[in-house]
Write a structure and sequence with these properties.
single chain; 129 residues; mainly alpha; 60% helix
Amino acid sequence: MKLEVSLSAIQYDGMPKSETNENGTENSLIRQIADLDDDRYRLEHQIVMVEKTLDVMGEPTRESQQLSTLLHLRYIERYSVKSCCERLATLFHLDYISESKFHRDENEALLLFVRIYPERDDLIVKIGS
């Protein structure tokens, strides 16, 4: 003997339907998360572009490598000017780098960076003091 059971939903034609209840707070949070995700992607992209530009910038000569390293120490690793001078002197086997020479080299490095950086319209560079 075989027993078959079938359930079917009752269909109410012509009955009023309720509107979808949307949670405004939830929708706002979802939009904020999407915006933050977009911002994170843009920042990650910019970081990669800066790192690649510094790599390319440092390739041709020892002087350009020193300029690239200067920018990396100062703006990526956030060393003070004095610490940058000491690190650069050590890395490039120099006796001494004065702070005035550092600033001249920094200006030159920033100008070179701007010429190489592919998305230069996004840059705001202040040269000089």
